[in-house]
Amino acid sequence: MRGKIWSKVALLLMSCVLVAGCSSGAGKKKEETKSTLKVVFGDESWFYQEYGDLFTMKNGENIEFEVVSTQGLYNDLENKTYEEAFNELIDKEKPDVLMLDLNSYEQYISDGKLVELDTYIEKEKYNLEGIYPGLIEMLKEIGGSKIYGLSPSFYGNAVFYNKDLFNKYGVEMPHEGMSWQDILDLARRFPTDGDEKTRIYGYGDNYPVSMDQLLSMISSAEGLMNVNTDTMKVTVDTDSWKRVFQLAIDADKSGVVYNPQDDEGFTGGTMEEYYQSQPFLMGRVALMVSSPYMISNLKDVKDRLKDFKPFELGIVSGPVDPADPTSTYNTSLGQIFAINADSPNKDAAWDFIKFVNGEDFARVKSRSGNNMMTRMGFNKDIDGQSLDPFYALKPKMSKNYRNWDKMPDNFYGEYNMIMTREIGLVKENKKTLDEALKTIQSEAQAALDKGLKEKEAKKDKAGEEGASSDNASGGGTSESATDAETTE
């Protein structure tokens, strides 16, 4: 009898627990509300692979994503610039989370289209100390001392060097904060004799480095613009450009830069053949500017090539802008995550942004690929090689791509033809550099002016055709309405 009573009591208690549990669960479900975040991104599947799936695994499914893809924008510009098409997409779809490049980020701040994140950061005591300091400083400068966006990753270069070659030829080792002048000065300390396919080069890259490419790398590292896109004026006839041209010409003439005339670089084949075509990996180049991917290549080549001769690798920060040796233009951001000022889901948008810029996300992503995470302490090294040089300098925003879409499509092709011709004359001692720069300036300006007029005429014509089409489609309705009014 007593056993039956206890059985009934136990059954009653279990029922109460289950009922309480169900009631508690039901109450919890009522409290939880699902939010749908609209996110602008290049491709939906890529978004989930990079960000969405990890966020959902960590935070549950209370936030669902709707991805506004930008994939087709380039295919449907209709005489608009990409920037105009992108802005129209944002105005139409009104995404909550924006992913912007630096130029768009700066413009959207100026237009008042972004939510200031400082309030969220201060309220939640969100830790910014672990994020690349130079990056935070740059974002604050753009935002007028305020933060409007964060970026979880960046792309950076540094100066790689073969310590064994430096020791063999008695050249002092590179130092932190190398400028292109420093790099090429050291490169000239190495021999230039021998067969093109077996000799040592002071400076090199994965492919032959033409003088035009060298000129582009040096000028980019110093933040020089060949066109001021605010005024649409060519700007190469200056002392700064003259110094850069002279540096590139002298380096090219000296023969220290890897640029064999009959070698177009790797054009196809196995990975083993690809690695064998890389002069730095094969121990034939003393210095090169590259990304962390080169460390991974060096690690891989050790495993793939049986006859590989290992060497000791060194990395220092650079190339720097000589006008500001603590900074570099050779660092660029991935997407900058920001909140649309018109978003009705600002808190949910912040939850997403703080996660993808947080420690858990950085911990996972630092284990895959060669992305440099802006949250430091997770990309400490690759194959034992410290990545500190990639975080040593303050990134600077290049102005080279500002208003890029406004440039005529064929201008840079024409500019490069003019420049190559004129610099060739300088190398042949048929012109002075001053004379060449004046010719480049005047002829490039004429080409730019012509291209801008043609682009404007094309745009006007497209507008007239569009207006004509609208009138044709709406004209009948207008006349019918007028006839009806007249009849009445």
UniProtKB/TrEMBL annotation:
Keyword Ubl conjugation set for record: no
Listed Basic and acidic residues bias regions: 450-464
Chief subcellular location: other
Ranges annotated as biased composition (Low complexity): 478-488
Keywords associated with the record: Signal, Transport
A UniProt-annotated Pfam family: SBP_bac_1
Gene3D superfamilies reported for this sequence: Periplasmic binding protein-like II
Endpoints of the signal sequence: 1-20
Keyword Thylakoid applies: no
Domain of life: Bacteria
Entry-linked PROSITE patterns: PROKAR_LIPOPROTEIN
Subcellular location: Cell envelope
Disordered as annotated region, ranges: 448-488
Family: Belongs to the bacterial solute-binding protein 1 family.
Designated name of the protein: Sugar ABC transporter substrate-binding protein
Originating organism: Paenibacillus aceti
Upper lineage: Bacteria, Bacillati, Bacillota, Bacilli, Bacillales
